[in-house]
Design a protein that fits this description.
With about 575 residues, the protein is of the alpha/beta class. The chain contains 17 helices and 29 strands. The protein is about 35% helix and about 25% strand. The strands form 9 sheets. The chain has a 7-stranded mixed β-sheet, sandwiched between helices. A 6-stranded mixed β-sheet has the order 14-11-10-15-16-28, with helices on both faces. It has a 3-stranded mixed β-sheet with strand order 1-5-4, covered by helices on one side. Strand 4 and strand 5 form a beta hairpin. Helix 2 runs antiparallel to helix 4, helix 3 packs across helix 4 and helix 9 crosses helix 10. The longest helix has 22 residues. The N terminus is likely disordered.
């Protein structure tokens, strides 16, 4: 690995390397990665392509026979050890995640890294409790049962002579994992953990904009392979505590979606792709995967409504809805961006909601009193739109300007900006009640060049406005009034997305009724972001294909076989 003395050194330039076959491998070219809170380059990330992906796939294929032959209990124990390693270095991971992504140190400490630890522990447990199916047909004298195996193995048998001798050829395949920049380690481990728990070997591509914590996790994997007692994350000597993950089981290739991501998606020995990111990029992945009939799991964008009826408990509803709108700078696919309030309480809600939103402090992410950090990049702050009509969501790692040019064959044009969502809403007659263009943004001297935006609340915006239809993926939310239950359900469903929704009411019958009618993969009532990882996660319509969770991830990362025995 290449770096100046320590990560803590303010002038150090971190240079990452790909992790292939249990070793760090340099790349021939690199790209800059910026600290979103300062606007300065602080990291160099490999600009990987086909050559690096090919090497990673080969390493994963070589590791498959050993890893897949381990029992679920053995793999479970190894995942738990890796969780312990990350938890031991939680503070170092949190500091890196905050610096790399722009999120507040508090959010990284309490959400991102603890969830990454939990992902490994959860799938370490769930892999031990899956059961297969069995049925009996007494009249036929048959018993049927199912078995499951990792996706990555196929045996082909061919004749070697005119006699009965056969040659068995085993072909190994690997899982391709592509994760986004908004919750870097959180969502990367959400893919790695179930994939390797099921016995697969993987090639992962994190976002080129937030690669550091993935690299730090690889340092733990390298230490496990080499047996060194030195913690490469904290640069201190610690007792030997290897995770036990064999070389080649987890390979990480850094780079852009346009090069490294596309090489991974198009590789013939990668039969399944698990992807979290923008709907636009998912369209390209689907197009490139079609000739190979690849299995896809696509977790995409959202334009999530909150529906607040007049019997809602506003003392709980308002602070929770502020959090669901602005947590992680609004850069969560589950964030609320459309708030429908029943007309009888609309004025009171709006007044109290704006007051609460103004309490959220924006500034240096390393300050534990700050609620809103920096947006991921200047390009995201200045959101890409084409002719003010079709937004390219920066939900993902993709070099989206290049991807858009490939898909549309049109030149790259930055013709509208994230802040222009607010300006366009104003031009349409909407009112901006706080935030962008209304309140002053005071930043410390060291953060003047950072990518910051105040929590912004827009009222009286039309349903057909881009602010109500398109995923902004920033600290902007719209509040509008409604009259009846039937009306609000129709309006809430009137977007192309269908990921998540929240419903606030004290009427149990109503919350059940509304939840069933909403076109959303997840519906929270009187709460937000309360998750049971055993249950399916994913969206409807343009918000994705497939589900993730204990059972769903297990089924995605394994092949099922039905076996019939006649007795």
């Amino acid at each position: 690995w290449s770096k100046q003395p320590t990560m803590a050194h303010s002038k150090a330039l971190l240079v990452l390397e790909n992790f292939i076959g249990g070793k760090f491998v340099p790349c021939s070219s690199y790209i800059d990665s910026y600290n979103p809170s300062t606007g300065d380059v602080y990291c160099r990330v490999p600009d990987s392509g086909k050559e690096e992906v090919e090497a990673a796939v080969k390493a994963a294929k070589d590791a498959f026979p050993i890893w897949s032959s381990k029992s679920p209990l053995e793999r479970s124990q190894i995942l738990n050890k890796l969780a312990d390693l990350i938890e031991r270095d939680l503070e170092a991971f949190a500091q890196a995640e905050s610096k790399d992504q722009g999120k507040t140190i508090t959010f990284a400490r309490t959400v991102d890294i603890p969830r990454a630890v939990h992902n490994f522990r959860f799938f370490a447990s769930s892999i031990l409790h899956h059961v297969t199916e069995c049925t009996e047909m007494p009249t036929m004298g048959c018993v049927h049962y199912t078995s499951r195996a990792p996706v990555g193995v196929v045996r082909e048998m061919s004749f070697v002579s005119q006699q009965t001798d056969l040659l068995s050829l085993w072909f190994y395949f690997v899982a391709g994992l592509i994760s986004p920049w908004n919750l870097p380690l959180y969502l990367l481990t959400w893919k790695i953990a179930p994939a390797i728990a099921c016995g697969n070997t993987v090639v992962a591509k994190p976002s080129e904009m937030t690669s550091v914590t993935a690299w730090m996790m690889c340092k733990l994997l390298e230490k496990a392979a080499s047996g060194t007692k030195q913690s490469e994350v904290t640069m201190t000597y610690l007792p030997l505590f290897p995770s036990g993950v064999p070389p080649g089981v987890v390979n990480v290739v850094f780079g852009t979606g346009a090069k490294a991501g596309e090489a991974l998606v198009c590789h013939p020995d990668v039969p399944l792709i698990s992807f979290t990111g923008s709907t636009l990029t998912a369209q390209r992945i689907t197009e490139k995967s079609a000739p190979h009939c690849k299995r896809l799991s696509l977790e995409l964008g959202g334009k999530n409504p909150a529906i607040i009826f007049d019997d809602a408990d506003l003392s709980q509803c308002i602070p929770t809805t502020v959090r669901s709108s602005f947590a992680n700078q609004g850069e969560i696919c589950l964030c609320t961006s459309r708030i429908f309030v029943q007309r009888g309480i609309y004025s009171e809600f709006l007044k109290r909601f704006v007051e609460e939103a103004k309490k959220w402090k924006t500034g240096n992410p390393s300050d534990p009193t700050i609620n809103v950090g920096a947006l991921i990049s200047k390009e995201h702050l200045e959101k890409v739109m084409l002719h003010g009509a079709y937004v390219i969501s920066s939900h993902l790692l993709e070099d989206y300007k290049s991807a858009f040019a490939k898909i549309t064959n049109l030149p790259n044009k930055l013709v509208d900006k994230v802040r222009n969502y607010v300006k366009k809403a104003q031009a349409e007659g909407a009112r901006v009640l706080c935030g962008e263009g209304v309140d002053p943004l005071a930043l410390p001297p060291g953060n003047q060049k950072g990518y910051f935006m105040l929590p912004t609340v827009i009222a009286e915006v039309k349903d057909e406005s881009c602010c109500m239809q398109e995923e902004i993926f920033g600290p902007v939310t719209c509040v509008v009034a409604f009259d009846t239950e039937e009306e609000v359900i129709k309006r809430a469903n009137s977007v192309k997305y269908g990921l998540a929704a929240t419903v606030w009411s004290g009427n149990v019958g109503r919350v059940h009724r509304v939840a069933h009618k909403l076109q959303s993969g997840l519906v929270w009532t009187n709460c937000w972001l309360v998750r049971d990882l055993n249950l399916p996660f994913g969206g409807m319509k343009a918000s994705g294909i497939g589900r993730e969770g204990a059972k769903d991830s297990y089924e995605f990362f394994t092949e099922v076989k039905t076996i019939t025995i006649k007795h």
